[in-house]
């Protein structure tokens, strides 16, 4: 009773006075601690349970694994997994599913897959966790592939969280075709009821460039919350439609919806893409006094990006020196990007040095100065940048583009020749190149 009422002090007093503490009493208090954000206290209680020799059951395991997941305690999770295996409970869905979730939350996806394969009859939560895990590991195609397979074999185990993860995968892949089909399937099964799912849909359609579809989802919502408003504003900001993004923000405020920290990231991003320096500064300055949202370093980084994109690098540097936070790696990265775009070599050298000190693993701290030096014809300094990068065994992450044709995704990377139709593709590109040369002449 005390746990359900949220009075954990009272619950602990009653627990301590119990002469015989059954497993249900231990797990009840552990659940209370975990739900209250006191997962470490839940784990301490579990240690006491083990010390006192209390008999474990599947429910105890599920509760302590949830506590491990919230704290990302992968080593303890592995120890508990060993106990689970020893007792022959790996196939039990009530234990296996929290184990899968624990490994995913701890970014140990291979272990999550192995644990998932041991579950004899995975339920909707199990499948949702593994599909979400694929998304977390940026294996979005696998997430969609698993969803399709699951839908064919056992559609009964699909739930709204599963669909939300698939919407996320389609969003990153910018695959409006599959996303629209999944949306239709979710509607048919009445599994898009939550505002979280609808917000994921808005994000998906927005990132696919289908802003009319995003608007249709948004306008179909009875009472869109701040997440939905922010998703819609972000969609327009993402595509550089600043005027519409800012109009939506003002409409949101007029409707009485209180913006949050993420909303202002979207608003400042819109200002950055449109070069609205004064307007961006106004939004940043009024966040706290007008909207009671305290600006973070992320918001100040957005403002640095606004100045840098607009080419007013001296103002950007002045702003960085005056802001209430120490510039972080992202601050200097935004500034350095502006230096490269607008060919500010001397300031770019300063920014590159600062970025390399704060985040020596970020290739931007080497690649962008290299580009600046080559633009200026300073080949020795450019070579030195490459040497620094090679000495640290860093590699620039290659950009990748893709297109879906007849239900199959084709990936393309600069210089890559692994595609089975590479020869035909390059021949066609040469045709286009020759045609454009003639056209330009």
UniProtKB/TrEMBL annotation:
PROSITE patterns linked: PPR
Transmembrane residue ranges: none
Annotated organism of origin: Brassica carinata
Example of a GO biological process term: RNA modification
Single annotated GO MF: RNA binding
Residue spans of the PPR repeats: 22-56, 123-157, 225-259
UniProt keyword terms in alphabetical order: Repeat
Family per similarity comment: Belongs to the PPR family. PCMP-H subfamily.
Gene3D superfamilies in alphabetical order: Tetratricopeptide repeat domain (1.25.40.10)
Pfam family, one: Eplus_motif
Record PANTHER family: PENTATRICOPEPTIDE REPEAT (PPR) SUPERFAMILY PROTEIN, PENTATRICOPEPTIDE REPEAT-CONTAINING PROTEIN
Name of the protein in question: Pentatricopeptide repeat-containing protein
């Amino acid at each position: 009773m005390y746990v359900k009422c949220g009075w954990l002090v009272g619950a602990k007093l009653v627990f301590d006075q119990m002469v015989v503490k059954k497993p249900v009493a231990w797990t009840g208090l552990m659940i209370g601690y975990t739900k209250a954000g006191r997962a470490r206290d839940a784990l301490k209680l579990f240690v006491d349970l083990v010390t006192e020799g209390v008999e474990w059951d599947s429910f105890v395991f599920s509760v302590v694994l949830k506590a491990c997941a919230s704290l990302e305690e992968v080593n303890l999770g592995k120890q508990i997994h060993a106990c689970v295996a020893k007792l022959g409970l790996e196939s039990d869905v009530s234990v296996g599913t929290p184990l899968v979730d624990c490994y995913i939350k701890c970014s140990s996806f291979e272990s999550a897959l192995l644990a998932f394969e041991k579950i004899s009859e995975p339920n909707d939560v199990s499948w949702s966790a593994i599909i979400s895990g694929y998304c977390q590991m940026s294996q979005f195609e696998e997430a969609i592939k698993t969803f399709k397979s699951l839908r064919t074999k056992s559609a009964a185990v699909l739930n709204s969280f599963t669909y939300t993860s698939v919407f996320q995968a389609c969003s990153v892949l910018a695959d409006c075709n599959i996303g629209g089909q999944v949306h239709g399937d979710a509607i048919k099964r009445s599994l898009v009821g939550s505002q979280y799912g609808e917000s994921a849909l808005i994000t998906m359609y927005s990132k696919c460039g289908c802003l009319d579809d995003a608007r249709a989802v948004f306008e179909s919502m009875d009472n869109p919350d701040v997440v939905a408003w922010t998703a819609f504003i972000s969609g327009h900001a993402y595509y550089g439609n600043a005027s519409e993004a800012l109009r939506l923000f003002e409409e949101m405020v007029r409707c009485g919806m209180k913006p949050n920290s993420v909303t202002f990231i979207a608003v400042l991003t819109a200002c950055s893409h449109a070069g609205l320096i004064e307007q961006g500064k106004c939004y940043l300055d009024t966040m706290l006094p007008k909207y009671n949202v305290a600006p973070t370093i992320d918001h100040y980084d957005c403002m640095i990006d606004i100045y840098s994109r607009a080419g007013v690098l001296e103002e950007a540097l002045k702003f960085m020196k005056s802001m209430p936070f120490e510039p972080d790696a992202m601050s200097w990265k935004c500034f350095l990007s502006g230096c490269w775009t607008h060919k500010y070599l001397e300031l770019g050298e300063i920014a590159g040095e600062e970025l390399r000190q704060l985040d020596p693993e970020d290739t931007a701290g080497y690649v962008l100065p290299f580009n600046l030096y080559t633009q200026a014809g300073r080949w020795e300094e450019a070579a030195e940048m490459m040497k620094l990068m090679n000495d640290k065994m860093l590699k620039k992450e290659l950009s990748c583009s893709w297109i879906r044709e007849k239900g199959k995704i084709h990936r393309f990377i600069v210089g890559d020749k692994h595609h089975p139709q590479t020869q035909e593709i390059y021949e066609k590109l040469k045709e286009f190149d020759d045609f454009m040369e003639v056209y330009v002449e």
